[in-house]
Ornithine decarboxylase (Nocardia sputorum), 371 residues
Amino acid sequence: MPESPYLVIHPERVRRNYRALDAALSTGDGAATRIRFAVKASPVPEIVRLLDEEGAEFDVASIGEIDLCLGLGVSPQRLCYGNPIKKTAHIARAYALGVRRYAFDTEDDLLRIAEHAPGSEVECRFLASAPESRTPFGTKFGCSPGEAFRLLVRARDLGLVVAGPYFHVGSQQLDPTAWRIGIEQAGRIAEALADKDIAVNSVNIGGGLPISYADPAPALGEIAAVVKHAAAEFLSGATGLVVEPGRALVGSAGTIHAEVVGVRTAPDGRRWVYLDIGRYNGMAETENEYIAYRFVTDRDGDPVDEAVVAGPTCDGDDVLYQRTRVLLPTTLRAGDRVRILDTGAYTASYSSVSFNGFPPLTVHVSGAERE
């Protein structure tokens, strides 16, 4: 047995998730939505190769992710440098490597793309008026819809190929109407661009597709129905969709195997359970307790009670759950094994480099569906 903690990824579950999403978003006339995997969710070579075989595109956020994909044989034509925050040197490097798709949300970035990646296809990210997601971006990314229109006209005038507007409803979005709102706003931008003789080839509806953790998420079919109805209502038939899932493809395909380091009762009477995995070596998405993972132990079936769950470092912020109601067996002891379910997304890729001397989360790729 490998030393705990470690993440086990099951690639065939990723394949099934990809095919289910592809089927859900296809339309009755045979049209398909382009699926662009957000590599940052799980930059595991076996996953990249599998999705490349399935025909996916790839949303890359850095030169490192570009190098990873190209090194695995992915065509640069299937990459989109989707991070609006990028250095000039990195734009030039990506272009030299064959990348011809870029996202932006400022005029400054647009001008640098035009200079260092001439003739490339571009998407402008706008801030949609969508409800807040479970892990929101705030206003870090995206310009106003009016500014997106102006910048896409500017992109055409600079000799770039306009793909269309791009929005993201926030990670782990639990309200399906968020996509309808974004698509309606994108449709208005597309109409304004048509008046300038600029045809919108695609609308990028971003990621944010949720999965169920401790709390249930809307079914994929429910979200897909909203997306397809909104596209039919607000976009022309010639406008395709691009979706950039990360969590929806890989989240359910991973399980973290951890160990109880210790259990104590604090002076306030609360029980604390310390694991060998915490905020800095895989559990970053527990920040603000946004994501409530499910725990399975070998003592399930014993009496349970509430517990504060914390990581192993000496940082006071390395606490996973103290407001969220987590019920764990009262018999848990140091050395007991704990499995954390649906942890295939944003765990190993968020893991820090040896904070407090704890190594980053190890990833094992399984040939079996479940361990």
Remarks:
- The first helix runs from residue 11 to 25.
